[in-house]
């Protein structure tokens, strides 16, 4: 893919917790190629309230602190979504941390079929040595250059979270390719370590073949995929990737 003028829009949604169409805020932050051919976080960012069409639940208010009065006069999702997800000017991809959540609302009807990058899945691949992979843990484990602390606050609001995610994406894209990130995002998450059970915290190359065969029947798609990938590596005789963490835990969004 030609990336000399590439642009990726990072998206974050806050929802009301009461239904399938209950977005109450959308935030965005663009990541672009600069004059030297490097990816950078651009000045294009913002957030809009969205009327979810029903009251926001107390459970979700306790997370993002958005009130019904904040969104009472805001446009509905179907009225505002495409203006953010299909902005003027070309974008090569949309991105989000644990993008499957945003994709539930940002359907092709609103995106025009733009491909997605999941920064959680990409972080597992690019930084497998890290102990945790939630958006905010990546922020403080990595301390990305140029991230203005105050702009990334409060957490669990759409624009600040998109801003933080964009710094992870920028650094990923400067370590690997846009095509790699797009490809990894179409697959399940490749967990660097076993997330639960008696082998929790061990890298997959330390697990017996017998246990790996047990893991490929696990209910968790990411666990199954990670075990299958390790079994395939052994069959093909490829070297293992050293991903032993400082502490054996995995973090989520």
Textual characterization of the structure:
- With 253 residues, this protein is an alpha/beta fold.
- It is built from eleven helices and five strands; from the N terminus they run βββαααβααβαααααα.
- It folds into two domains: 179 residues, Ribonuclease H-like superfamily/Ribonuclease H (Nucleotidyltransferase, domain 5); 66 residues, no CATH class.
- The protein has a five-stranded mixed sheet, with helices on both faces.
- It is globular and about 60 Å long.
- The mean pLDDT is 93.
- It holds the Pfam family RNase_T.
CATH class of the largest domain: Alpha Beta
Sequence of strands across the biggest β-sheet: 3-2-1-4-5
Alpha-beta classification = alpha/beta
If you average the pLDDT, what whole number results? 93
Indicate the CATH topology of the largest domain.
Nucleotidyltransferase, domain 5
Strand content is 15-25%
The tally of helices reads 11
The CATH H-level superfamily of the largest domain is: Ribonuclease H-like superfamily/Ribonuclease H
CATH architecture term of the largest domain: 2-Layer Sandwich
Q: End-to-end distance, in Å?
A: 29 Å
Number of domains: 2
Largest sheet: 5 strands, mixed
What are the low-pLDDT stretches, counting only 5+ consecutive residues below 50? none
Described by the principal axes of the CA atoms, the overall outline is globular
The H-and-E topology, N to C, reads as EEEHHHEHHEHHHHHH
What is the multimeric organization of the chains shown? single chain
């Amino acid at each position: 893919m030609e990336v000399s003028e590439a642009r990726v829009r990072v998206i974050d949604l806050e929802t009301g917790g009461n239904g399938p169409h209950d977005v109450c805020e959308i935030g965005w932050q663009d990541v672009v190629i600069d004059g030297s051919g490097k990816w950078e976080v651009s000045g294009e960012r913002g957030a809009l309230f969205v009327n979810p069409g029903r009251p926001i639940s107390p459970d979700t208010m306790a997370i993002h602190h958005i009130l019904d009065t904040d969104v009472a006069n805001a446009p509905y999702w179907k009225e505002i979504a495409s203006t953010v997800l299909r902005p003027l000017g070309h974008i090569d991809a949309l991105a989000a941390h644990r993008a499957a959540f945003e994709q539930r609302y940002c359907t092709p009807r609103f995106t025009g079929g733009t491909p997605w990058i999941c920064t959680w899945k990409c972080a597992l691949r690019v930084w497998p040595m890290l102990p945790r992979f939630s958006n905010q843990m990546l922020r403080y484990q990595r301390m990305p250059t140029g991230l203005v602390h105050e702009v990334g606050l409060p957490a669990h609001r759409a624009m600040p979270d998109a801003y933080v995610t964009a710094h992870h994406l920028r650094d990923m894209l400067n370590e690997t390719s846009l095509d790699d990130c797009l490809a990894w995002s179409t697959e399940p998450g490749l967990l660097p370590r076993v997330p639960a059970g008696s082998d929790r915290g061990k890298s997959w190359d330390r697990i017996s073949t017998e246990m790996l065969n047990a893991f490929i029947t696990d209910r968790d798609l990411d666990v199954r995929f990670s075990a299958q990938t390790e079994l395939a590596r052994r069959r093909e005789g490829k070297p293992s990737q050293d991903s032993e963490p400082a502490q054996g835990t995995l973090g989520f969004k």
